[in-house]
Amino acid sequence: MVEWTECERATIKDIFAKLDYDSVGPAALSRCLIVYPWTQRYFSKFGNLYNAAAIMGNPNVAKHGKIILHDLERGVKNMDNLKETYADLSVLHSETLHVDPDNFKLISDCLTIVVASRMGKAFTGEVQAAFQKFLAAVVSALGRQYH
Amino acid sequence: MGPARQAAMLSKKEKELIADIWESLTPVAEDIGADALLRMFASYPGTKTYFSHLDISPRSAHLLSHGKKIVLAIAEGAQDIGQLTVTLAPLQTLHAYQLRIDPTNFKLFSHCMLVALACHMGEDFTPVAHAAMDKYLSAFAAVLSEKYR
Question: What range(s) does the Globin domain occupy (chain A) (predicted)?
């Protein structure tokens, strides 16, 4: 199980408290689909993903981005129990969606960059490290039920 | 994939975008470079092992000068991406025979550089700029490790 310092907990909760989920979620997912276009393979039913503008304007992408961020919030509320929190989602991604778990890291990196661009200087090296530690723990939990 | 091919993956527009961004960052090279390095040390403590001979505390002279060196090399490469192998030849030799930094670390540094750019440029670090920059930094790292073996 992951050990969190008080400082890390506070930092992570603080970041999420200040995030505009409905903007950041869509921004992170669309960025992932643009920067790593092969990830589009999982979204063939989403409609027009033809270019960056289409992706950023796609309502299905936006909707899914919001869902992802709200699901991350569950992790923030259950930082000491991530494996159980994400067990069902892990099974879903493995057995139904057939998503290569390497992709979780790609969207994590895009989310980090979106948050960095919103927070600017406040996203210090220490804040980044705590945020990335949290995302890595979620990514690990999401990969747990793959077999 | 060879580095020359990686560089060729960049469109003309992307190359121009990358060149413009790095040109605009040259005046703040030491700040961006030091910021990226500090982020890397904070998130990936193993990377500090390559700097045991320097003072890498925030705002130290070593950190600023080293950050500046790295950014200026990246910026120079960006001015003519097609010629990366030529531009970086001396640095290739340095990294292969003297520094011998494990190339996995280049990915870690590149990621932290992207984060530093995002913090600095805010909304201007668009998804298209991010994609182009990620491709460029990957090509740069590949060229740097070309002489390793």
Answer: 3-147
Q: Closest Cα of chain B to A23: distance in Å?
A: 13
Taken as a whole, chain B contains a residue count of: 149
Alpha carbons B90 and B39: distance in angstroms, whole number: 27
Cα–Cα distance measured from residue B110 to residue A68, given in angstroms and rounded to the nearest whole number: 25
**For residues A19 and A66, what is the distance between their CA atoms, to the nearest angstrom?**
12
Long-range CB contact pairs, A15-19, < 8 A, 24+: A15/A115, A15/A119, A15/A127, A15/A131, A16/A72, A16/A73, A16/A76, A18/A119, A19/A69, A19/A115, A19/A118
Chain A contact probe: residue of B35, B37, B40, B43 with most A CBs at under 10 A = B43
Helix-helix angle B12-25:B61-78, to 10 degrees: 150
d(CA A94, CA B17): 38
Question: Which residue matches tokens 């869509």?
Answer: A26
Answer whether A126 sits within 8 Å of B118, measured CB to CB.
no
CB distance B35 to B119 below 8 Å: yes
Q: For residue B108, what pLDDT is reported?
A: 97
Q: Which ipTM did the prediction report?
A: 0.89
Residue type, B87: T
Long-range contacts of B1-6 (CB under 8 A, 24+ apart): B1/B142, B2/B142, B3/B84, B3/B85, B3/B139, B3/B142, B3/B143, B3/B146, B4/B84, B4/B85, B6/B135, B6/B138, B6/B139, B6/B142
This prediction's pTM: 0.93
pLDDT digits (tens, 9 = 90+) for B31-44: 999 999 999 999 99
- Where do we find the tokens 């925030």? B58
